[in-house]
Amino acid sequence: MTALLPNVSVPGSTAVLLPMSDCPFNVTAAAQEGLGSGQSLPPLCTLCCCGFINRTLAVVFMVSLAFAIVVGNVVTLTVFVQTRQSRTPQGYLKVSLAIADMMVGVLVVPFSVYTEISLMVTSTPPIWYQGSSISPATSSSLGGLVSPWQPCMLIGPVFAGCTFVSISTIFLMTLERSVAILRPLHKDALVTRRRTLLLILLSWAASLLLALAPLIFSRNFTLEYNECSRMCNYTPLLLGSQLPPDANILLLFPAFDFTLLGGTLAVNIVSFTSIRRYSRKRKLLSEGSLSDGGGGGGAGGGGGCSHRPSFSDIKAAKTIGILTFAFTASFTPIAVFVLGNVVGYTWCNFSFFAFWILTGNSCCNVIIYSVRDHRFRKGVTLLFQRDPSPPHFEKS
User: How far apart are the first and last CA of the chain?
Assistant: First the structure.
């Protein structure tokens, strides 16, 4: 996701983008001293925020998280690809969610690991580090000045886009399950593979476009690696000492996510209300409190029984409800952080926990599937067996 990180103006140069922290450290004074003496600006880091032990623990955590994300989602993709029963609209949505999560583990987290190790091992940061504050522009063959390419211009939108893909996919999964529960006889006609694939493509396109919105619709933003969050963050270019007038464009991110989360919650409430009503009726029928009634009532009762949702649909709806709750819990801290930055608050330590709690959600889905989905557990078991395809006559 994103964060608003203020910058400072340094005499004799352009605006320098610097991360602010909650540590007792005068960033402006240090920047002025470093540039005033003709020396390159060192990494803006203090012991309480970026000490050697702190960085070491952060790298160990990042490596472990990246391993868990990649392995878990590779297993998920393999199970859904090799299992024919999973080639359903719901299965395609789960594959989309797994791809978004795996991209976080393959691109976003390893980049943070690389940057942290570079800052620990080398005495000088990478040439692109902290944008114009560290990276001197080099002359090109055409006679102009060319700044080094900033990898965060790729990593930042990828992380934001994958976050948007995750929540939009969970929303689509909720809609698919609500149709299976509320209109079980029309499920196959309404929810087709073609429509599902089209919605998946639209969600990816819209999510990536939204992730690039601050760069497309404004020239007052850039992307930099931030030492507080240890991730690539959107950074506004200050106009003097004031935020740019369009700084509130970053509010599109939490607005989009909370809108979809609110819609997902509303659909889940409708689905669970229908499940509860059906479960209560089924309990009364088993106890003999309800009879089939007369002919018309019997027809109605028979119609109700034939239109009831299946047990697998009900369990899948509950699983998606758990996914929604897990994503909401992991996204809320980052939303609070973004809103706080927009109104002027900056939390260094909190930003690290907020960003990495959201990142950790990328390995939660496979855990939820393992606990809730019997078919997924069976697929994992067959995947790791030495002889996963016994002869057909042994099945009987």
Answer: 52
Query: What pLDDT score was predicted for residue 375?
Result: 75
Cα dist from 380 to 77, 100, 149, 280, 385, whole Å? 11, 20, 42, 34, 9
Structure tokens that stand for 276 in this block: 């509860």
Q: With left for phi above 0 and alpha for psi between -120 and 50, is residue 333 left, alpha or beta? A: alpha
Question: Helices 89-103 and 152-182 meet at what angle, rounded to 10?
Answer: 160
Distance CA 190, CA 130 (A): 50
Q: How many residues does the chain have?
A: 396
The pLDDT of residue 151 is above 50: yes
* Contact by Cβ (8 Å): 105, 66: yes
Which contiguous run of DSSP H or E holds residue 213?
Answer: helix 213-216
Q: Give the alpha-carbon dihedral of 171, 176, 182, 188, to 10 degrees.
A: 160
Residues 6+ apart with CB under 8 A from 321: 268, 272
Position 113 scores a pLDDT of 93
Q: Is a pLDDT exceeding 70 seen at residue 364?
A: yes
Q: How far is CA 66 from CA 60, 294, 375, in A?
A: 10, 62, 26
Residue for token digits 């992730």?
211
Positions of E strands within the chain: 138-139, 145-146, 221-226, 231-236
Residue 112, classified by CB atoms within 10 Å of its CB into exposed (0-12), middle (13-18) or buried (19+), is: buried
* Per-position DSSP letters for 215-248, written without gaps between them: HHS-SSEEEEEETTTTEEEEEE--BTTB--TTGG
**pLDDT tens digits along 171-226:** 998 898 888 888 877 778 888 889 999 999 999 999 999 999 988 888 888 888 88
Residues sharing a CB contact under 8 Å with residue 395, sequence separation 6 or more, in sequence order = none
pLDDT at position 35 is: 39
Q: Which of 279, 107, 93, 85 is nearest to 196 (CA)?
A: 93
Q: Residue 377 burial (CB < 10 Å; 0-12/13-18/19+)?
A: middle
Q: What residues pair up with 242 in beta bridges, in sequence order?
A: 239
Residue 294 has pLDDT above 60, yes or no: no
In terms of phi and psi (left: phi > 0; alpha: psi -120 to 50; beta: otherwise), the region of 215 is alpha
Point out the least confidently predicted range of 28-32, 48-52, 94-98: 28-32
* Residue 108 pLDDT level (bands cut at 50, 70, 90): very high
